[in-house]
Design goal:
heterodimer, A: about 350 residues, alpha+beta, Rossmann fold, OB fold (Dihydrolipoamide Acetyltransferase, E2P), 2 domains, about 25% helix, B: about 230 residues, mainly alpha, MetI-like fold, 11 helices, globular
């Protein structure tokens, strides 16, 4: 649908470097990256608010690099909602239609179903300053959707909301994406949000796009150590391949040996990425499993977080496993307890040192 | 008449003058309000669009222009009076307008005096509308003109507060209207110049009466300002 072809632009001392990406129709596209990486600038560049120095922007194959924002059929929702404080909710929501030339009465009739849908009809005559954060967010979203955009651009829309309101809003966004078939581009730094919403994902660091692909692939098989660290891979281990037989490599990580499925050759430096979900803990040493990596070690810490617990095990290097609290209780996992830790060779993602 | 402290006596007489709507007090008050309100109106007419222009357009030296405007907030009024006197006197380039020692000349002088203040405050008021809001408006499909109009509309209370401050500076100002107006009885005498003159003549009751009115106007402006700022 929209494509960036080697787009570069400067904004003060910040530079967006040679960014190429493709957002398909109906995608829920996440742009993630650390603070100051250029996520919002990229989002604004999609909206046409910054003119590229070089490169091309294409919409359905046609170049729109110089097309002004008001002609792009996009709508942008910022983290702080950017509502107009001196306009009532109904005026805020119908603003986009009004500036596009629709009469006041028609515009209000047009947005009435939207107010119902977002549960803000009863707030129609209130000013934004009298609304809660969640209500303001729904008003901002209704205002954006009212103009029937081809692409909805969201800049960290959940970061200012409390956890309960976040859950409701995530459900709203899912429904909007699924039922309306809307193309959504969302800037976020939350892996959890990406897990719940994203179908496609780009990672941007220091103004450069360092990874892009299906959300599941980027989250579980990152392209570089930097991306792995950013997307929250819990176990990132640097090692050297000592042997490779038919694609099953033996990797030495500071004396600890792992087997992983990779085409990395003997002698090659690699980084192993192991999701905490993929680390299995057992008590005793008598269970036979198909897991290629199996070692008896000691629990260092157990940190409970809601229904799950993060268990850290000293295996020469520190490894993290995520278990349900019930499993932790049933296995009697406490610091100092002996456990057998296993990881399937196929669950280890190997990053070549050249990546 | 109460005998005793001349200040207390003057204060009591002043209240009597106000209650009795003394013709001289009424005439000076009306002239003051007329001159300063008219000056504020014309200054707003000029400064608001210019302030908006400075805010919305990027140009080299923009920062210097804004800094200069802010410096001019503290411009000594007697300097403005002197410059305007030279401009409006017979030897000056605008002498042919015959505005010296007329309310018209005082209006022009006060207009010049508060234009930088209103321009600077307009820029500040518009800057209060953040970048995200500006981008949101544009992305929702607003043209450049619609974006400008929406931002001005959203900043209207802050802009109004600036205009009220400008009026406050104009009506409380004495130096320039004294020089350009000449403080002529029945023609160019306003609250501030009348207070100056009557105090020097030990006519305390009239000075205090005019002072109370001037303070009431200032209080009214402050009340209006706080009401506007509450929005």
């Amino acid at each position: 649908m929209i494509e960036f072809d080697r787009v570069s632009l400067a904004l003060g001392s910040f530079r967006l470097n040679d960014v190429s990406l493709r957002i398909g129709k109906g995608d829920y596209y996440f742009i993630v990256g650390p603070s100051g990486a250029g996520k919002t600038v990229l989002l604004e560049a999609i909206a046409g608010l910054h003119r590229p120095e070089s490169g091309r922007v294409l919409l359905r194959g046609e170049e729109i690099t110089a097309l002004p924002p008001e002609m792009r059929k996009v709508a942008l929702v910022y983290q702080d909602y950017s509502l107009f404080p001196n306009m009532r909710v109904i005026e805020n929501v119908s603003y986009g239609l009004r500036v596009q030339g629709m009469r006041k009465k028609e515009a209000r009739a047009e947005v009435a179903p939207l107010l119902e849908r977002f549960g803000i009809a009863h707030l129609a005559n209130r000013y934004p300053g009298t609304l809660s954060g969640g209500e303001q967010q729904r008003v901002a979203l209704a205002r954006a959707v009212a103009v029937k955009p081809d692409i909805l651009l969201l800049d960290e829309p959940l970061s200012a909301l409390d956890p309960v309101t976040q859950e409701k809003f995530i459900a709203d966004l899912k429904r909007l994406h699924r039922e309306d078939g809307l193309t959504v581009v969302q800037v976020s730094h939350s892996r959890r949000e990406a897990h719940l919403l994203a179908t496609w994902m780009a990672v941007i660091i220091d103004g450069a796009l360092v990874d892009e692909g299906e959300a599941g692939v980027v989250l579980n098989a990152p392209r570089s150590r930097e991306v792995a660290s950013f997307v929250g891979v819990e176990n990132i281990l640097d090692g050297t391949v000592t042997a490779n037989e038919d694609g099953l490599a033996t990797v030495d990580v500071g004396g600890l040996v792992f087997e992983a499925v990779t085409d990395a050759a003997a002698g090659e430096e690699v980084t192993l990425c192991i999701r905490a979900d993929d680390v299995v803990l057992a008590v005793g040493n008598d269970r036979r499993t198909s897991a290629r990596n199996r070692m008896s070690r000691t629990v260092v810490s157990v940190a409970e977080n809601g229904p799950v617990a993060e268990v850290r095990v000293d295996a020469g290097v520190m490894l993290t496993a995520v278990l349900t609290r019930r499993s932790v209780q049933e296995l009697g996992l406490v610091p100092g307890a002996s456990v057998t830790l296993s990881v399937k060779a196929t669950a280890i993602h190997v990053i070549h040192s050249s990546s | 008449m109460v005998n005793g402290n001349p200040i207390v006596e003057g204060f009591i007489e002043a209240i009597e003058l106000i209650i009795a709507l003394d013709p001289q007090v009424v005439e000076i008050t009306i002239r003051s309000l007329y001159v300063s309100l008219t000056a504020t109106f014309f200054a707003a007419l000029i400064a608001l669009p210019l302030g908006a222009l400075i805010y919305f357009y990027e140009f080299r030296g923009k920062h210097a222009v804004v800094s200069t405007l802010q410096t001019l907030y503290a411009l000594p009024t007697v300097i403005v009076g002197l410059v305007m006197f030279l401009f409006l006197s017979n030897i000056g380039p605008f002498g042919f307008l015959r505005l010296l020692y007329t309310p018209g000349g005082m209006i022009v002088t006060q207009t010049v005096l508060i234009i930088p203040l209103l321009m600077g405050l307009t820029v500040s008021a518009l800057s209060g509308i953040d970048r995200d809001k500006r981008y949101t408006i544009t992305a929702l499909g607003a043209s450049r003109l619609q974006t400008v109009m929406t931002i001005i509309s959203e900043a209207r209370f802050a802009v109004m507060a600036g205009v009220l401050l400008g009026f406050g500076r104009a009506i409380a100002e004495v130096g320039s209207v004294m020089i350009v107006g000449g403080n002529i009885r029945g023609a160019t005498r306003v609250l501030t110049t009348a207070i100056t003159l009557n105090t020097s003549m030990a006519n305390y009751s009239l000075s205090i009466a005019l002072g109370i009115i001037l303070l009431s106007v200032a209080l009214g402006v402050n009340l209006a300002l706080s009401l506007v700022q509450r929005r």
